[in-house]
Specification:
The complex is a heterodimer of chains A (227) and B (221). Chain A has 227 residues and is an alpha/beta fold. Chain A contains seven helices and nine strands. The longest helix of chain A has 16 residues. Chain B is mostly helical and 221 residues long. Chain B is built from nine helices and no strands. The chains are: A alpha/beta (227), B mainly alpha (221). At the A-B interface, helix 2 and helix 3 of A face helix 1 and helix 5 of B.
């Protein structure tokens, strides 16, 4: 699938006929994909086509209306704890506490992820935030806050990255660092699923157009196929 | 366990970093309580009669005042969805947050309650019963409050809804807590009331985290 070296432990993430409703509104229907080690999936589609919803489904934060995800052919829903332990999720909110310093923010997450204490500074360095470590997070710009959120990805190794508009607010240098981090993650055999409106370089990635799945859901709902 | 303790410590640190909110609830308890002796006049018999009810009601209101922030800020800034993904059951996360709320908002009440009780002219036995009741009832208020705060999360106007959800559930604490002080003043046994209060706190300890976690899952949906 990609030209990265063969991964140490091959993994396979499969989605079968995933449908999602939000309240009484169909979001998308009939999504299928399969991703192996080192793969990246770019979620494309208009606002409201369900990119964030699909990522939240994958993270287990939302229940799927129909369909299932499989990790190495075992249904993900059968063991949500194991699934949580293998994913890292970056939503569009940064989960940064303004009252704490940059270092305290990342070190707090390091403990909650059972990462070694020194992992925090390494993760900050990955997004060029180590110089701001002592700054209270309330003084960070939106892009810097985003980089602090993204540095959580580097605290522990998780095979599945779920990124919702990760490059929002980032400057060119930080976007390049993010692309590097994703490339390294894939080279190590990880999977990355990224919702993006462009601006992020994801070489050799698959593309999933949610507009199509969104229209399918609307039509199915109209004809009464779903529910 | 280490993750649980880390989360508990982090919650306490977050409150101490911006202590204004916790101090506000504490000041509200002190000032609100001190208004009554001034308003009702210096009749010692009347004050001793109304003191248990007023002090306990003020403790409930003080708890309510701080509860709407228990999950709301974490919900708004995306921390809650990240906490839902760490290697800790959501119920344990709720327990850690409720216990941290008690440690930062309930424990300080224990310290100032005797001072406030003196302004009502309560004798030593009454003060002891009040403090013992608050010590057992404090965790109860935080645990029940966590359920209410989690339920109110999704709602608009959550600050207005929270008291409506939580106050009815606080009534048992109010009844037994007040009765303990009344009994102490009347020279009757205090222990039965305190034991019931403790039993309620244990029941809340076992049930409230699960209920709060279920409510949080709905809010994260």
């Amino acid at each position: 699938m990609t030209d990265t070296p063969p991964p140490l432990t091959p993994i396979l993430l499969r989605a079968e006929h995933i449908s999602c409703w939000r309240g009484e509104r169909p979001v998308f229907a009939g999504i299928d994909f399969a991703l192996g080690s080192g793969a990246a999936l770019l979620l494309a589609g208009a606002n409201g086509s369900g990119k964030s919803s699909l990522l939240r489904l994958l993270a287990g934060l939302l229940p799927a209306e129909a369909g299932a995800f499989y990790w190495n052919d075992a249904p993900v829903a059968a063991d949500p704890e194991a699934h949580r332990a293998r994913l890292a999720f970056i939503g569009h909110r940064d989960a940064v506490k303004p009252g704490m310093s940059v270092a305290e923010n990342i070190e707090g997450w390091a403990t909650l992820y059972r990462a070694p204490p020194e992992a925090g500074m390494t993760a900050l360095a990955g997004f060029d935030l180590d110089r701001l470590a002592d700054l209270p997070a309330r003084y960070l710009s939106a892009g810097q806050r985003r980089r602090l959120a993204l540095s959580r990805l580097l605290l522990v190794e998780r095979p599945l990255w779920l990124l919702d508009e990760p490059q929002a607010g980032l400057d060119a240098a930080a976007t390049a660092r993010l692309a590097d981090a994703i490339a390294q993650h894939r080279a190590g055999g990880g999977i990355a699923i990224v919702a993006s409106h462009g601006g992020l370089d994801l070489p050799a990635s698959q593309r999933l157009d949610l507009d199509i799945a969104h229209r399918a859901a609307l039509e199915a709902a109209r004809s009464g196929d779903l529910r | 366990m280490s993750v649980f303790l880390a989360l508990f410590g982090r919650e306490i640190r977050l409150v101490l970093r911006q202590p204004g909110e916790a101090l506000l609830a504490l000041l509200f308890f002190v000032l609100g309580g001190a208004i009554f002796p001034i308003a009702l006049g210096p009749d010692p018999v009347l004050l001793a009669t109304v003191a248990p009810g007023i002090l306990w009601a003020m403790a409930l209101f003080a708890a309510l005042l701080s509860l709407d922030r228990l999950f709301q800020s974490d919900f708004d800034d995306g921390t809650l969805e990240q906490l839902a993904l760490i290697d800790l059951p959501l119920a344990a996360t709720c327990l850690a947050k409720a216990l941290a709320h008690w440690a930062t908002h309930g424990l300080p009440l224990l310290v100032v309650a005797p001072v406030l009780a003196l302004s009502f002219g309560l004798p030593g036995a009454g003060i002891a019963a009040l403090v013992a009741g608050l010590a057992l009832g404090g965790p109860l208020l935080s645990l029940i409050g966590a359920v209410g705060a989690a339920l109110a999360l999704g709602a608009r106007r959550s600050t207005a809804i929270l008291p409506l959800l939580v106050l009815p559930l606080y009534i048992p604490a109010l009844v037994f807590g007040g009765a303990a002080v009344d009994s102490a003043l009347a020279g009757l046994a205090v222990a039965p009331h305190l034991m019931l209060l403790g039993a309620l706190a244990l029941a809340a300890l076992a049930l409230a985290p699960w209920a709060a976690a279920a409510a949080l899952r709905l809010a994260l949906d």
